[in-house]
Design goal:
- Helix 2 crosses helix 13, helix 3 runs antiparallel to helix 4 and helix 10 runs parallel beside helix 11.
- This protein has a single domain, classed as Orthogonal Bundle (MetI-like fold), CATH 1.10.3720.
- The protein has 13 helices and no strands.
- The chain is mainly alpha-helical and 294 residues long.
Amino acid sequence: MKQKSSSDLFLSQSFARKAAMRFFRHKLAMAGLVLIVIIILLSVFYPMLGNKATAFDLDYTAINARPQAGHLLGTDALGRDCMMRLMLGGRISLSVGFVAAICSTLIGITLGAIAGFFGGKTDMVIMRITDSIMCFPFLVICMVLVSVLGPGLGNTMLAIALLKWTNAARITRGEILYLREKQFIEADRALGINRFKTLFAHILPNAISPIIVNTTFNMADTIMTEASLSFLGLGVSLPTPTWGNMLKDASSLVTLRTMPWLWIPAGVMIALTVLSINFIGDGLRDALDPRMNI
């Protein structure tokens, strides 16, 4: 296999340095990165430092208690600590978002790469399947699939991953169609290099930038999807807390008017998480664009 020359290595390292510098100079991306790190750290370590049982044990002496020293965000209608449930819910919501987004992206990359590289009937079949999935409202078909599989953490991840890969597939296919006509691919053909090796070792690494950007936006969208499913009672089952089912528990008109500590924190966490990931995605999009000047 042809080895990279020293100039090729220098150019790739130079682009990586410039991309990193562009990203770290992107103020909104840095704000989003700091915010998402804080949210992750709180979700991971707050339950470890406190008593996780307060998120599940019923305390009828402290029903709908206002925020106070013992309960920083008050308690819900069953006397459970809202702060602990919020942080545990963050673990679940972030896990679903990240795992389902990565799995769906891997599915999309694989199918899109095969469709774009081999073309012909293979491309037609994969793209028609992609178009068929995309023609249905995503949340509706996701609700149907979760209803068939049954609510739960694993089934929620599986349903989202099986339906959310279409954008990644189309983006990957477009990049492959562009790159497969380049001279270095022609050189691979002339040298008789295996087509799968050409695809996964030479073409995909050059198409990775838009895929990374799409993955970040996919994570934000997946977190919103999980929250929507849980709010509708089709996501993660109670008593396991998620931001979505916390909003569902506080959806009555009386609660919305008189007990804002039951729904505002979960709504704010969803909004901040999605916003911060989108900011990071914007920063990555600008940083990985070779047309941008340093």
